[in-house]
Structures are given as structure tokens and as C-alpha cells.
Amino acid sequence: MKFIDEFRDKDLAKGLLQNIEKTSTRPVQLMEVCGTHTVSIFRYGIRGLLPEHVKLLSGPGCPVCVTPNQDIDLAIALSRQKDVMIVTFGDMMKVPGSTSSLQKEKAEGKDIRIIYSSLEAIRIAQKNPDKKVIFLAIGFETTSPTIAVAILRSKEEKIKNLFFLNSQKRIPPALYALLQSEKLNVDGFILPGHVSAILGITPYQFIAKDFGRPAVITGFEPLDILQGVWMLIRQIEEGRAVIDNQYGRIVQENGNPLAMQKIDEVFVHDHAQWRGLGTIPDSGYRFKELYAEMDAANFDVEVEPPREHPQCLCGEVLQGIKTPVECRLFKTACHPENPIGPCMVSMEGTCHAYFKFS
Questions:
Q1: Is residue 275 part of a domain?
Q2: Which of 15, 74, 86, 149 has a C-alpha 20 to 30 A away from that of 103?
Q3: pLDDT tens digits for 70-108?
């Protein structure tokens, strides 16, 4: 199949690996920001193919994983109201909050449903006029346009019982915060393809200009990733730092202006809480005044104080400081059937990928 088989060619992969080996003369650590990259890297055994001195670290590229406990606790508290229905994407069901999860609340009779698209929330609200339907809306720039369209459509159709619990995140400010950390030991970044299809290239320029690190927007097939690694190593060896685009068949210079327009119609940038990274300025969204009536955060509900498991290292894993195998809970108390932290829940979570493929 075009754009599938041609990016999994064994001989081309061998050639790229030889180029990486010839080009790289010193130890380097590269961070893949996107959870889909993490899964692809494990699925195709790329870590094991690279020279021993070329290390790949996983970053905060899983939207489920970076959702903080207080957002989950608020969704749980709202689900306990008798006239409320929570709808969300499937991965959020098993994410542990401070003392419960949406899956546990559903098992106890709360009205919580899985949806597969943002617009599905509208249909559910229309079919359940006696319920306050609250969409726990998570995601990065890839998902935010669809959430914005659902809000615009809901306003247009005068749907009064649909609300949005907003836990969306923006990737570039999170990378800026990571780069400011003294704990980060990364020589270059493999940047997310899906997010960049929306954003384009310009929003990442600070990585090279302000912090002197190279970065490459990369696709998700094995040859994409190997070529992205080679492009990064060439920059590092040549002492350059620019934002390259390996994924040119999808990512354009200016991204997707229509998608960005939809986001800007509904939201303005605001600070956001990230698991492991804390509060990051401009890394989230808040509703514009015209749509503030749909904000479920305005509901008056008592929420328990957030608590984290003291031994869970998910926050450090998301920062690239620790790997899952350094966590004493990994594969013992914490596994996909009993996730202690969100990094073990999502398919894109680093702990889940380590558990499944290693």
C-alpha cells in the first residue's frame, strides 16, 4: 500500500542505520515527544537497532498521561451528581484519580459513556434532554479543532444541556518548560507529526533559537523515524540547530489554518496543569466569553484534595528523567489491568509501551 509498504522497506532501513552509525561519533540522547512515536519505536524495535550510544527518551506526548489528578477528580465528582452524564474518550475510563476512576464510578452505577468523536457528544445530549451531558475533553492540538467544532455546533443548534470539562493541552509551551529544566539531558527532539500537521513548523523555532537544540518533525513509519534520527544526528555532528521537517508529505509550513481558526474562535490561551510538569503558562485553553456558559468547570461541586501515589514515577517518566523500569511498581503492582498511574493506561503511555513490547 502506498505510504505504508514503501516506508517499511528492509533494505532502506539498513541503509539509514548504516548512515546513522557512520555519522554519529559521540553519545546522544534524543526525545520523542509524541506517544504515537513511542509506540512505533517499540513496535518496530528501533531502540534495539540503533547504535548503543544513540539513546531515545520518551516525553510528555500522551494527552491521557499528562491529565492531572484534579481534572480527573472533578470529572468523578461531577459524575456523582444525579442529573449528570459524563462522556469521554475510552482511555480516560481507567485513569486513576486520587481515590477512584471513571471506570469504578461507572461500575457503581454512574452514567458514564465512551465516545469516539467530539460530535458524538452532541447526539448524546440531544437524545438525553433530562441530563447535563459533560464531555471530559482532553487532547493536544490534533484533537482541539474537533472539540472546538463540537462547541460551535452546539451553540449553533442551541443545545442547552451539553457542557465541556476542558483539559486540553498545547505542546510548544510544554517543550519550552521542559527545556528550562536543569534535569533535562536531551540533545535533540523528534517532534510530533499529528500535532505539527495542525501547527506547522514556526511554533517550534524557539527550540533551536532560544535553546540551541535541533528538532525534526517526523512521521510514524519505521523509515520516517530512522530518517528523523539521522537528520538529528547530522545536525548535532555539524553543530547546527534548526527545525527540520521529515514529514513533508503531511506537515506544511503553516500547518492547517482552518483548524487553527476553529480553535481561535472558541478558546484563548491560558495556563494549564500538567502531570509531572506543574502549571505551565499558555499551555492550555479557556473558553471565550461567548461560550463560557458551556464550561463545566463552573459547576458548583465539592472535589476531594488531589493525591498522588507516593511511589508512582509517571511524572518523572513524562519529563524524560526516569524510565518505567526504574519504578518499583512497574510490572508488579502496576500493570494494564491495575494501573497505578496514567502512563500505564493509554496505548500511547510510556509505561504501557514498555510493558507491552519490552
A1: yes
A2: 149
A3: 999 999 999 999 999 999 999 999 999 999 999 999 999
Say which CATH number the domain at 150 has.
Answer: 3.40.50.11740
Residue 190 Cα to chain centre, angstroms? 14
Please check whether residue 60 lies inside any domain of the structure. Answer: no
Residue given cell 529544566 in the structure block: 181
Q: How does residue 315 score in pLDDT terms, banded at 50, 70 and 90?
A: very high
pLDDT of residue 2: 62
Q: Report whether 232 contacts 289 (CB < 8 A).
A: no
Global pTM value:
0.94
- Does residue 151 form part of some domain? yes
How many independent structural domains does the chain possess?
A: 1
Residue 107 lies in a domain: yes
Q: In 52-143, which residue ranges form alpha helices assigned H by DSSP?
A: 63-66, 69-79, 102-107, 120-127
In the chain, helix, strand, coil percent, each to 5? 45, 20, 40
Distance, in Å, from the CA atom of 111 to the CA atom of 84, rounded to the nearest integer, reads 7
Q: Which pLDDT tens digit goes with each residue over 123-140?
A: 999 999 999 999 999 999
